[in-house]
Amino acid sequence: MLPRTDILARLRETDPAKLEELRRQADAVRRENVGDDVHLRGLIEISNHCRRRCLYCGLRADNARVRRYRMTGDEILASARRAAEFGYGTVVLQGGEDPNITGEWLAEVIRRIKADPATCDLAITLSLGERSEEELALWRSAGADRYLLRFETSNRRLYEKIHPPRSPDAKDRFALLPMLKRLGYEVGTGIMVGIPGQSYNDLVADIELFKKLQPDMIGLGPFLPHPETPLGRESRPAGGDQPSNDEMTTWKMLALTRLACPAANIPGTTALATLNPADAYETSLQWGANVVMPNLTPPEYRRLYEIYPNKADARESAEEFHETWVRRITALGRGVGVGRGDSPSYLQRAAMLMETTMLLSKKTPRISRI
């Protein structure tokens, strides 16, 4: 792990030669720890209902202009089958904090995906915000494999400012992450880069927290507010200690995150591709990323899942994205990942748990029957 002063210096670096050195270092660490395969995860945005009032997100409960939807179980299963047809090893069920996505309803959807011969081998990642321990345990027992819960910023004051008070029974995200590990999930988290009021020291603290938590998946992208939100209507501070929400600052964070968490799965995010549709995904893969998430949400819903405007993945069909990405990955000299693509850190943790379980079972005394 780089010293704090070195991380800060690299975040402020502008010398092209030194930036290229950082990129090469992160890319080498990526290759050594997670290999050259790029794993494709099928993203299914199952609901744009949300009870939260986050100051930057277009799905916030106070946005009366968004037309709401919630996919049916049949629609979710059909999208999962598309993922299997394309050869993806994972589906990601993502949505706002929708109170009508109940524990048992989603558990049944998960069971259906795991029971269907066409989709039974898919890993299931959930990204549905802060949920109760009972729901999380139920979904894990139903067959969910991974959970993504971004903390967005390690600065608690800034976090509370942009995420207004939750319901009294809501769980704290920083407490939920270790809980998810205890439940046996492969755990992901992440941040936004360039939040108004964020500092370079905050970004350093984010990387230090990644290092401490050692997540299995880490997503990070530029802060992109929706115009129908409080932060979207404010002017952005610039300069000084305020990090930019541009591509280069995000790529620096991506590279430094790869150095801090060598074995994590790190995607090239849609937010970056929204800033630069031409080659942001490819560039992310050269700065330490090893995952891309094609959008499999049905077209009639995809344009309504507008957490920020002009999302890159709203422009292409699932078929177009898939065909394009197979070519792009090959052109980079990389391979398309096969199978679930679990992170090495998770596989090591699971192996240790299995070994411990076997040792404990051998020590259990046998009771003789008379």
Lay out the secondary structure.
Elements lengths: L3 H9 L3 H19 L2 E11 L25 H14 L3 E6 L7 H13 L7 E5 L5 H10 L3 E3 L7 H7 L10 H10 L3 E8 L6 H14 L3 E6 L24 H14 L9 H6 L4 H7 L4 E2 L6 H4 L15 H14 L3 E2 L7 H20 L7
Parallel strand pairs: 1-2, 1-7, 1-8, 2-3, 3-4, 4-5, 5-6
Helix pairs in contact: 1-8, 1-9, 2-9, 3-4, 4-5, 8-9
Notes on the structure:
This protein starts with a helix and ends in a 7-residue tail after the last helix. The mean pLDDT is 92. Strands 1, 2, 3, 4, 5, 6, 7 and 8 form an 8-stranded parallel sheet that branches. The chain is α/β, with parallel strands linked by helices. Helix 3 (73-86) packs parallel to helix 4, helix 4 (103-115) packs parallel to helix 5 and helix 8 (200-213) runs parallel beside helix 9. It has helices at residues 4-12, 16-34, 73-86, 103-115, 133-142, 156-162, 173-182, 200-213, 247-260, 270-275, 280-286, 299-302, 318-331, 344-363, and strands at residues 37-47, 90-95, 123-127, 146-148, 186-193, 217-222, 291-292, 335-336. The protein has a single domain, classed as Aldolase class I (TIM Barrel, Alpha-Beta Barrel). It is globular. The chain has 14 helices and 8 strands.
Estimate what percentage of residues fall within beta strands. 5-15%
The first-level CATH class is given as Alpha Beta
Shape: globular
The Rg value, from CA coordinates, equals: 21 Å
Q: Spans with pLDDT under 50 lasting ≥5 residues?
A: none
Q: Helix share of residues?
A: 40-55%
Which sheet architecture does the biggest sheet show?
8 strands, parallel
Order of helices and strands: HHEHEHEHEHHEHEHHHEHHEH
User: How many runs of DSSP E, i.e. beta strands?
Assistant: 8
Taken together, the total number of domains comes to 1
With helices defined by DSSP (H or I, 4 residues minimum), what is the helix count? 14
- State the CATH topology: TIM Barrel
* Overall mean confidence score, pLDDT: 92
Classified in CATH, the superfamily is Aldolase class I
| Amino-to-carboxy terminus distance | 60 Å
Report the structural category: alpha/beta
CATH architecture: Alpha-Beta Barrel
